[in-house]
Amino acid sequence: MTGAASRRLPAQAGELVDRSRPLAFRWDGRSYVGLEGDTIVSALLACGVDVFSRSFKYSRSRGVLSASFVDPGCTVQVDDEPNVRGAHRRLAAGMDVRPQNVWPSLRFDVKTANGLVGRFLTAGFYYKTFIKPQRLWPAYQQVLSRFASGGVTSRQNAHGYYDKRYVHVDVVVAGAGPAGLAAAVAAADTGAGVLLVEEEYELGGHLRFSGEESLSTLSELRAQVAARPSIEVMTDAVVTGRYDDNWVAVLQRNVGGAIERLVKVRAGVLVAAPGLIERPYVFAGNDLPGVMLSTAVRRLVNLYAVKPGERAVVLTANADGDAAVADLTRVGVNVVRVLDGRAGETIRRATGRGRLQAVELEDGTVLPTDLLVTATGWTAPTSLINMAGDRPVWNPTAARFVPSGDGLPPTVLATGGLVGDGSTDELIAHGRAAGTLAGDRAQGRAGGGVPDLACEPHPGMFRASTHGFVDFSEDVSSKDVVAAAKEGYDSSELVKRFTTATMGPSQGKLETINTIAVLSEATGRAIEDLGTTVWRPPYAPISLGALAGRIFEPTRVSPMQGWHEGHGGVPLLAGQWIRPDHYGDAAQEARNVRENVGIIDVTPLGKLELSGPDVPRLLNLVYVNKWSKLAVGSVRYGVMCAEDGVVMDDGVTGRLDEDRYLMSTTSSGAATVWEWLENWLQTAHSDWRVHVTPVTTAYASINVAGPKSRELMQRVVEGVELSTEAFGYMQVRQGRIAGVDDCVMWRIGFTGELSYEMHVPASYGLHVWEALLQAGEDLGIRAFGVEAQRILRLEKGHLIVAQDTDGLTRAHSAGLGGMVKLDKDDFAGKPELAWHERYGLATAPRLVALQPVDATAVPPEASQIISSNGDILGRVTSSRMSPTLGHGVCLAQVDPAVAAAGTVVTIRLPGGGDIRATVQEDLAFVDPEGVRLRA
Amino acid sequence: MNQSPPSFVGRRARSLRTARRGPARYSAFDLIRRGALGTDWPRSFSQPELRGTYDAVIIGAGVHGLATAYYLAANHGMTNVAVLDKAYIGGGGSGRNTAIVRSNYLTPEGVRFYDRSVKLYENLAVDLNYNVMFSQRGHLTLAHNDSSLRTMRWRAEVNKLQGIDSEVIDPDHISRLVPYLDVSPEARYPVLGALYHPPGGTIRHDAVNWGYARAAEHLGVHIHQYTEVTAIHVESDRVTGVSTNRGDIAAPVVVNCTAGWASTVCDLAGVRLPLITHPLQAAVTEPVKMFLRAVVVSGSLHVYVSQTDRGELVFGASVDPYPSYSMRGSLEFTEELAGHVLELMPSIAKLRVLRQWAGLCDMTPDYSPIMGVTPIDGFLLDVGWGTYGYKAGPVAGEAMAELVATGKTPEIISAFDLARFAEGRLVGEKGAAAVGH
User: Could you give the 3-state DSSP secondary structure of residue A595?
Assistant: First the structure.
């Protein structure tokens, strides 16, 4: 490549670039060289490149406007990262930078044609066309979506490494300009810990590019910060949001190996010191490359030593514009004309093909030029204080929205340009007072006052006599805003939604005031009456990666998982849990339980320890059956219904001691039930004395099932009499298993066999598991998985909540109507169940067992049961081939009309075809009398 | 309009022929003509003077209120109607939702109702002469475990038998529809299948609001923005009118079409509703080139996502777990959302969230709305729309208009009456409505 540094100026006093460190990179497929310290855009400008993107709708060439993070024309693709702010992002060696939104190329873009028909593509044009014929709308839409702006993402992209950090600090200062720096120093001097956050790569704000005197003030302030170890400094970081109770989000880029880090801060006091954002001026051609804000020019010249043009016209209405004139003159730019906005001077339009060539003045004078600088006013970024409760008000004297001063909690303060104007000394004094107050308040002291920082008068300059862009990234012109207002979209909210002005990547930071000013012009209503729209978080965009962080999605396994994996256990994913589905042959595992003895790892079962004298009241409230008389040593099956009477969970609860209970829930319902209990206790019954402790993973749970269970248990259990008489069905005991104390065991029978379920301290889970297997070797013991358990329980006709029930199934429709005790005082779902029992039963679906007529048929679950004319009469909820019986066994929810035993129903298979099945007398296919499980 | 049923208005409504001339045509031709001539478009809606009397007052200028007004005027010739809103058109839930439209519900009442709504949406652009950008890009509800796969199969079978286009598809098919989705078995929550509903999709919600408002106003309806109802007047169990910050209105019919504040508005009439109001949050990213055609929902991961024609990804989740009237977004919401989205599409970590917001959802115990009459004669309800109000806007408006004009509750909404809570006839849609919106 050639011509490197052709626009690079000699060394500037405050320049950030390191001339000894060239960095090679690529732009739009070609090689370039910039300097360390350059932004992508300053490096390209120095190389003579001044067009960086095409606009969204009209495909107009765009260059530098603000030379800051909010610069809509400087959004580029860097490697696999879309929408990089090229005027903010530091150049790195080897970057592959590409323009976005161009096709086929930046120089020749076919959508440019849109520019020619622009007068027809007014705001909201798409609402007015493509209406007929409707069948063509999808095709139109395909075309429209080609216009979508932004970069590209690839499905090959790596996730990358992101991180989070938590900080508790007395004071957060958002923004490190003169006021922010002074605030941080002053807060630290009160003894407070301070976090100072700056969006740019270095501290100082506008002091960095405002001349020698400012630089010396800045180095003093930087030294003061550096001398205070209680100030933590984050640069290239931004406060993106302030949430309730001063929960402050900080996005920190490129730190500690992470692409981005989300720092979550609980701040005692937040000091907002974001400074001011310079506002563009609206006139025809205001988006041409070569039209820049005064701050852009001063940044380019002073920070990056880049000459922004050769012949300049400057429109200035404030001191910063005047300073830009001085900077330009100093570095040899020919300033051909300075127009003073304060004296009522202005321009009419800018012209040029693809870039600025001339400026036309109000008197018709045409000045050939390649640089037009405007300094027509400011926008105060009120986002953070808006999020904290302040509603900004229009200050007509300063011609900008300013904090109202009302509505902020004492833990949020504002300082610097956000509040008002002043000399550097005045800004520092204000920042210092705000910092002292923040530090005092954060440490529980009242603190002193903060001086006023008045707004200086500034001419209200928004639009010249011509129309131009109010929103560059959305391609919305002032003409669009006027047209929208005339059509009736005449409030600030409606005009925003209709034209999409302020909805692009800078979220109104450049666009809001001009949009409202033009709306004010169009409607004749004052800006203060129109008001501004609500700023919503985040202040600066945050990547999904940073928000997600490292993604802590726990994978839960039982202490026996290693054993399962070593013994051929095939994993089943059940929510967060991974557990063995089977060990090779589920049918064989099931048969072994019926004939000998099997053990299954049921650790994922939800377990809650309940303690306190009011536990029975809680149980009575959340279960539909009665609990007052549950004796110590007994276990009861319970069904929970939601307030609509729909079954939400089931499980058993055992009374271990007088005031101590262990509740089990379904594996998938563990968290929901815990929340449900806490909700009742914390809202409706805060006076009840009950503690709920989730102990799901504190115990490893093992179920021993099969006719030889007792024999096995006798070999490993100490101190508990296991005979039927001493430890019967639905009883609970505590004792020692395989040498492990504090185990809970209860006799229940999900599989339909004699069965003990034991909950042993988790760290001994594997030991007990292996002890059981060893002790039962001669009994034919083998482990069984979830699939065998499902077969066994289906043979026994035991339902699974959320499989054999659904979001509509009330207790009665699950065959559990007998458990509902309406004579209890109150319980969750009672009114609905009472009504249901009285009026609803006749039409409510019922849970029945079905046996396919063809013994080999096993209809897939969710197959619909249909009538002869195709109406839905129900569905198969569970279905398996029974290894015990050698035919298909099903549970089904069916219409009462076909629920009678002996009815033959038609099942429509999802793949097509029908089979027939007979409704059974009982839900249980195996041992309906329950002899085996009571053995 | 040929029958003369007992009506709340107590007089025969005006016939369609006497309604005002239609609004300015919107078409490509007109766009070019006006562009060439430089003539302005006429106002779509204005701020008319408040009359002292209307035949019906509708509270809430969201999609439900505006649709009700439009169908009152268009189908029943009732045009002396006011729509009142405390803020601007579509500023509540109608402008804050994520604009997903679908009909793959679970109860026959729900399926029939939402299917009618989809049908109305399909023709809405032509009916209103306003492009509402209904994009039937397909709606996928992912199953990450065998129990949700079973539920998807059930919904598909029910939908198929009811004539709704809905089927369960396998990971290969999903991958073809949504190439960015991680359907590998190694995913933390592997995708085992999905319920695919091709007619489901998205719509430009503001366009629907404005299209209804514009069409209603041109038929003579008054839309009063920034007009807050401060009292509802009732005499001997009959509604007689409302007071507003701009003056009093006498009206024999008052329809509550609000969301978020439905219960507080009903309080003004002394009607209590079984509603709990929860915030529902959403977020949008910066635009990138189109890569996601379908709407993707994951119930297990509590997230749904679609990409707008502008290139932004729009995300939503379940309602916040606590009741609140706050419309501020929380940080936790975006964190959790991002985590779940990246579980589904790990390659988009560098996309940035641009904006987050919240709306309010009035949740009923059975996840179905409350529509129809109240104990106060003439005070009607179209409320309790939870998280699914937008997709029902047209059908709700059509049915409420019929109720207002004829005094009879249309059959299609009869299951959603207020009395069902006292009588225990709930219409449970929780399974199909909870996250899918």
Answer: helix
